[in-house]
Automatic annotation (TrEMBL):
It comes from Paenibacillus aquistagni. It is found in: Membrane. This is Neurotransmitter:Na+ symporter, NSS family. InterPro entries: Na/ntran_symport, SNS_sf, YocR/YhdH-like. NCBIfam families: Na_transp (NF037979). The chain crosses the membrane at residues 12-30, 42-64, 85-115, 141-162, 174-194, 214-238, 250-276, 296-329, 341-362, 382-399, 419-439. One of its GO terms (cellular component) is membrane. Keywords: Membrane, Transmembrane, Transmembrane helix, Transport. Its main location: membrane. Pfam families: SNF.
């Protein structure tokens, strides 16, 4: 039986799926990798990989979900009964659970910083911003409390269901995200000295395109679309059976690429105009950007805008991570959804507490990494690549042929022969490519 939950429109599905894909990595890491790995040259390579690798994998998850109308675990059981393939759904649940457990920690920091920016306690704080960030992350009360607040926001939205919660929030947050980006880009591109930052970000330099950069582009081409954890299986299960999924998939890819490009246009010109060096990761958001905005006119307003943007991106991703777990337990039963959401949300919060505390307690570090870093490593380097390989193999070899033909008609109805090429990619090309990314992430490649 198909789930009773459904998106109210195609645009609702697109915005929610794009929100799931657009996360912190697209804003605080990817732009800097572009800039340091060949600028426009790297962006072209990433674009090709995203269309040639990420898009087919996204379509694979869409096909599984839309074909069955069921959440991840039940979808694999429906397509491959009396087999172990449903374990891929459980792997997706485990991946999303672990990911949200530490992702919510960063989300909590963003909530805390956003509230500080609104109260005027962030800019001109009278301290080094690195010291403020260290005090925030190492103080158990602040770190765990802000994580709890972020999870509460996520739970409240997901508990309201697909239509009244996730889709409604995505319809507000995603357009809001792009409006905030436009405001920041206009501000950034009107600053004196911004030209150097624009050149740093976009000027093509193929000499800086080394093997490491190409491998990163490979990995990011599917990680950035939120494939591998079966999130998109669950989201596409809420699509009306008569709705095509080809154009929505292209829209999700386009919005993701646009976000990465807009992030760079908003950040680098302003950084260079302020005479500051670009960085990536938490240091960019919590240390460099506040220091940068302090030097600019109306900086307190624009840092609040930037933090709101980050908060929107983080929350929309968190919705999808919690939804796959909730959907598996509620089985489309609206009466069970609220209880399942609160139960799963609280369990994930508790799992994330060690990650929240690992920045202030040496006891939570082992093997040279904190609990937070080990969780990140397990998800990014092990669980997601394995999930991607299994999904590609499943659709390539185990998906019932007649049902796959029906799904292909919903993807590219005018290109019947495209299914042959698609199957070749899934069976022989994509698993090998993802395996290379996996081995590189584990430092097992001989070169």
């Amino acid at each position: 039986m198909r789930t009773s939950e459904q998106w109210t429109s195609k645009i609702g599905f697109i915005l929610a799926s794009a929100g799931a894909a657009i996360g912190l990595g697209a804003i605080w890491k990817f732009p800097n990798v572009v800039a340091t790995s060949g600028g426009g040259a790297f962006f072209v390579v990433f674009l090709l990989f995203t269309c040639g690798i990420g898009l087919p994998l996204l379509l694979a998850e869409f096909a599984i979900g839309r074909s069955t109308g069921k959440e991840a675990v039940s979808a694999y059981k429906d397509l491959a009964p009396n087999s172990k393939w449903h374990l891929v759904g459980y792997l997706g649940m485990a991946t999303c659970t672990l990911l949200l457990s530490f992702y919510s920690v960063v989300g909590g920091w963003i909530v805390l910083y956003f509230l500080r920016s609104l109260s005027g306690q962030l800019i001109h704080a009278g301290e080094e911003y690195s010291a403020i960030f260290q005090a925030t992350t190492s103080e158990p009360l602040w770190s765990v409390g802000s994580q709890a607040l972020f999870m509460l926001l996520t739970i409240l939205v997901v508990a309201r269901g697909v239509k009244g919660g996730i889709e409604k929030a995505s319809r507000i947050m995603m357009p809001g995200l792009f409006v905030l980006f436009v405001i920041l880009i206009i501000r950034s591109l009107t600053l004196p000295g911004m030209e150097a930052g624009l050149e740093y970000f976009l000027k093509p330099d193929f000499s800086r395109l080394d093997g490491e950069a190409i491998l990163y582009a490979l990995g990011q081409s599917f990680f950035s679309l939120s494939v591998g954890g079966s999130c998109m299986v669950t989201y596409s299960s809420y699509v009306n059976r008569n709705e095509p999924i080809g154009k929505p998939a292209l829209s999700v890819v386009g919005l993701n690429l646009m976000t990465s490009l807009m992030a760079g246009l908003a950040i680098f010109p302003a950084l260079f105009a302020a005479g500051m060096k670009p960085v990536e990761g938490p240091g960019l958001l919590f240390i460099t950007l506040p220091a940068m905005f302090e030097k600019l006119p109306y900086g307190s307003i624009f840092i609040a805008v930037f933090l709101a943007l980050f908060l929107f991106a983080t929350l929309t991703s968190a919705f999808s991570l919690l939804e796959i777990v909730v959907a598996a337990f509620s089985k489309g039963d609206a009466a069970r959804r609220k209880r399942a959401t609160w139960t799963c949300g609280i369990v994930i919060f508790l799992l994330g507490v060690p990650s929240a505390l690992s920045f202030g307690m040496q006891e939570l570090s082992f093997g040279g990494k904190t609990v937070f870093e080990w969780a990140d490593f397990a998800v990014s380097n092990v669980m997601l690549p394995i999930g991607v390989i299994l999904i590609a193999v499943f659709v390539g070899y185990r998906f019932p042929k007649e049902r796959l033909k029906q799904e292909w008609n919903a993807i590219a109805p005018r290109w019947k022969k495209g299914l042959v090429l698609y199957m070749f990619l899934l069976r022989y090309i994509l698993p090998v490519i993802v395996l290379i990314v996996f081995l590189n992430g584990m430092n097992w490649l001989p070169f």
